């Protein structure tokens, strides 16, 4: 799955799946890597760690709810590299809530970060995408499952899956591939941002694991492996496809 001579962008590249994928890309010989995040200090720390072996890593601020950030990211990539071969739209958020507790602001924010933001970023990046470029969107196994409390999040991921289908046709005319990776429950920092107590998090984790045939949470590196395959020329015959890396959850 060599990525030699490719230039790649990963949103949400400072932690979790994004960070693991950044390292996987570097391990596969990526020519240059751009990571984005919302915190400048965390971005700089990640950039320094990822570039410690001499790799070319650029860290850029990108907030999904700020359209001007997408324009700025595209302009910087144009200035530094003039092209882009791989995009992994990874950044996302979730705030679980049953129907009676869904708040309009939280629902709108999830759609902005998980759907509209990535879509506008791809719009800005489109002129930079080379023939044969690969775009990977991070969806979720919940785009096909009904999980209580996850109505909004699941809807955003189903919408992103639809975006991938449509763009695989639109951008396919330029020889650009668009596919998705659909993680199941993964050990990432996102669970610490749910505002739940440790006891509630433990109960939730146990309930989730009981539904997953693999009997455990996945690791960010396991998602990174699938993304690396989709980024490579080894997946050149895949367009509009989704790879489920969910321990078998979506098969039930």
TrEMBL record:
Ketoreductase domain boundaries: 6-175
GO terms, molecular function: oxidoreductase activity, acting on the CH-OH group of donors, NAD or NADP as acceptor; quinone binding
One of the Pfam families matching this protein, by short name: adh_short_C2
Oxidoreductase recorded as keyword: yes
Biological process according to GO: fatty acid biosynthetic process
Keywords noted in UniProt: Oxidoreductase
Family of the protein in this entry: Belongs to the short-chain dehydrogenases/reductases (SDR) family.
Protein known as: SDR family oxidoreductase
Source organism: Roseobacter insulae
